[in-house]
Amino acid sequence: MTTARAHRLANGVTVVCDPIDGLESFALSVVAGRGARQEPPDRSGWSHLLEHMVFKGAGGRSARDIVEAIEGEGGHINAATGYERTSFQVRALKGRLKLGVELVSDLLLRPALDAAELAREKDVVAQEIAEAEDAPDDHVFELAQTAAFTGQPLGRPILGDPAVVNAATPEALEAWRARLYAPDRLVVAASGAVDEDELLKLAEASFGDAAGAPSPDPEPGRFVGGLRPLARKLEQAHLVFLLPAPGARDDDYFVMRLFAEALGGGMSSRLFQEARERLGLAYAIDAWADAYADIGMLGIYAGASPGKAADLARTAAQQILALAERIEPAELSRAKAQLKAHLFMAREAPLARAEQAAGQLLLFGRLFAPAEIAAGIDVVDAEDIRRLGERLLQPRASAVAVLGARAALPAAEAFGKTLLG
Predict the structure, then answer these.
(1) Given the DSSP bridges, would you call strands 226-231 and 399-404 parallel, antiparallel or unpaired?
(2) pLDDT, tens digit, for every residue of 275-329?
(3) Are 314 and 348 in contact (CB under 8 A)?
(4) pTM summary value
(5) CATH classification of 226-420 is 3.30.230.10, yes or no?
(6) Do the first three CATH levels of 5-207 and 226-420 match, i.e. the same topology?
(7) Which one from 24, 39, 51, 71 is the annotated catalytic residue?
(8) Would you call 204 a catalytic residue per the annotation?
(9) SS3 of 285, please?
(10) Which residues are within 8 A (CB) of 263 and not within 5 positions of it... i.e. 6 or more apart?
(11) Cβ contact 187:358 at 8 Å
């Protein structure tokens, strides 16, 4: 059973408390169920820029005051912007919940958004964008994402475009804040050494007056697919292969997660054993399932020498085809064990529990007990895996990014030809 319970404030903010006996610390995660996917082209990168800016001053505190207030009590504060969520996290010792809730509510609802600070932070974000492009194992993922969702917010980098980021003004950013952090999709989640009554009172005091006109829901995602080979003077080639897959709300969500686990989730997976151990084609290779609310992706990342990249691409495609045809009972059993371990071991950390609860509420409007999740995993059988394999291949679409020396670039076409003919 789960110890978490959810409550809804009058303005739509949801509060969830998940106490854990015996802990001397807690984690607070305040999650807005909107992110870069809400951005039109002329706001690309603004959600990430806003996340930066709120730390520059909020609720009458300066940037230094904010970090000193929490770190002076032994705590830590952080934030992250994604395509569908923006989260603010505090980890602190027992008894500091009031400080954590007040600090985060100031960041979300009462930022200063000073013009001089904004000018400086635009330059910082521009450096961050440049740094991501300089890192091959970051840039290759952006290339693949752009290919998969060309012409859509999901196909634009979360960091945004420097020119669009530079166009932001304090007034326009404040209007964007009111839409992005609107209370109808705001979750205040705490786990660990927390008291439910105290959390509810603090949330009401700090978030009960939150207001804002929400931005409209994004259009359904469309997996477009395509090739993004890019020559760079690198010693190693970086490759990403993507296929369209079910979203987080789809009945096949756990089937997809298990398919990815068996394909490349660990050292016993097909890709690791075949591509790395038996053939020696890659020094790193893994598979994963990435799910947004309405659409998902099955992905493979690999690092290899340029001369072996095309053979690696063909091998990856062959392993997808083979798994789509049949999974062995022992493989499925291992995949289930690994997936449950990943999900449930994370529950040993209060922050992971708080963010898991927030995600469930935003996607489904309710909390799931661990036993319910385990049952959803356990019920998957070999026929479900085979059926999902057909579903993955049916659109006859893939997105491939290859970054490295010119000798590696044929891998982009090799993957699709082997997989789809």
Answers:
(1) parallel
(2) 999 999 999 999 999 999 999 999 999 999 999 999 999 999 999 999 999 999 9
(3) no
(4) 0.95
(5) no
(6) yes
(7) 51
(8) no
(9) strand
(10) 269, 270, 271, 287, 298, 300, 319, 320, 323
(11) yes
